[in-house]
Design a protein that fits this description.
Elements: E1 2-3, E2 6-7, E3 18-22, H1 34-42, E4 45-48, H2 51-61, E5 66-69, H3 75-87, E6 92-95, H4 108-116, E7 120-124, H5 129-136, E8 144-146, H6 154-164, E9 170-175, H7 180-191, E10 195-200, E11 208-213, E12 226-230, H8 243-255, H9 260-271, H10 275-286
Parallel strand pairs: 3-6, 3-7, 4-5, 4-6, 8-9
Antiparallel strand pairs: 1-2, 9-12, 10-11, 10-12
Helix pairs in contact: 3-4, 6-7, 8-9, 9-10
């Protein structure tokens, strides 16, 4: 395979198969990349969230590769067999019903197990409702916090929203249509009248992105899952920490085993600092 005049190959463990994490269309079938189509044809097996949904995609593109289900209820039990196939030299594609696998979709346990076994995982990037909605929202994209689907129970949802209230990063959620109005109401109560974008039917014929403020949008119940993009905390709502609190937060971040640079990135996102300033403070803390 060639691209830009350079020979392109997939990086895999010699003698073993590879798991390809393949992003598939969230609506418009033209978004399935040529590389994704090739890999879906070449692998021995496609592990898919719903074999019926993936069958429709494969039929459209003339892909006859064998399919096997891999969803939230059987992922753990499927992993040993898939690992054996990889060690026998078979490569496998992992897909979800739509978009990029693992983002609020199955596959995380499989990928972790494959890496633990020293086998290869290759990402085949493509459609993602998260990114498609974020870049069209009109809200800041430099730093964002993705929480997937909020909890089903109202109390747990409110606790989550309250815990995120002081983050300066743009907040991103998925939500089911039947819970959208209640979720928007609870976001308004916990975060106030921040700017929000509500994206539905992305890449499809009736794609729609509603922009406004929490508490001021009047909308009918949508069809299909939606992506919510919510403005991060304004500067006057962010916590002011004294030196001992900043030091304690840096210590807590480093205790997670992450690098000073990653700790600085997290600190900057949480406090709204410039990353250079956060990095300087972290290095001072570790004595470098």
């Amino acid at each position: 395979m060639r691209g830009f005049g350079v020979e392109m190959t997939e990086t895999v463990s010699q003698g073993f198969g590879c798991v390809y994490v393949v992003a598939t269309p969230i609506g418009n079938l033209e978004d399935l990349s040529p590389r994704a189509q090739r890999i879906l044809r070449e692998v021995v097996l496609i592990a898919c969230e719903d074999t019926r949904r993936t069958a429709k995609l494969c039929t459209h593109f003339g892909i006859s590769t064998r399919r096997e289900s891999l969803h939230a209820h059987n992922e753990a039990s499927r992993i040993p067999g898939l690992i054996r196939r990889l060690k026998a030299g078979d490569s496998i594609a992992l897909v979800s019903d739509a978009g990029t696998p693992l983002l609020s979709d199955p596959g995380e346990r499989l990928v972790a197990a494959v890496i633990e076994e020293g086998l290869s995982v290759v990402s085949v990037p493509g459609p993602s409702a998260l990114l498609a909605a974020l870049v069209a929202s009109g809200l800041p994209t430099q730093a964002f916090h993705f929480s997937g689907f909020p909890p089903r129970k109202s109390g747990a949802r409110r606790s989550l929203f309250a815990s995120l209230a002081s983050l300066p990063s743009t907040l991103v959620f998925y939500e089911a249509p039947g819970r959208l109005k209640q979720t928007l109401g609870e976001l308004h109560e916990e975060l106030g009248g921040r700017r929000v974008a509500i994206a539905r039917e992305l890449t499809k014929l009736h794609e729609e992105i509603l922009r406004g403020r929490l508490g001021a949008l009047d909308l009918a119940e949508p069809r299909g899952e939606v992506t919510l993009i919510v403005e991060g905390a304004p500067a006057d709502e962010r916590p002011e920490l004294d030196e001992s609190q900043v030091g304690a937060r840096i210590d807590a971040l480093l205790a997670e085993g992450i690098s000073p640079r990653d700790a600085a990135r997290r600190l900057a996102d949480e406090l709204g600092w410039k990353r250079s300033e956060a990095y300087r403070r972290v290095l001072e803390r570790v004595g470098q």
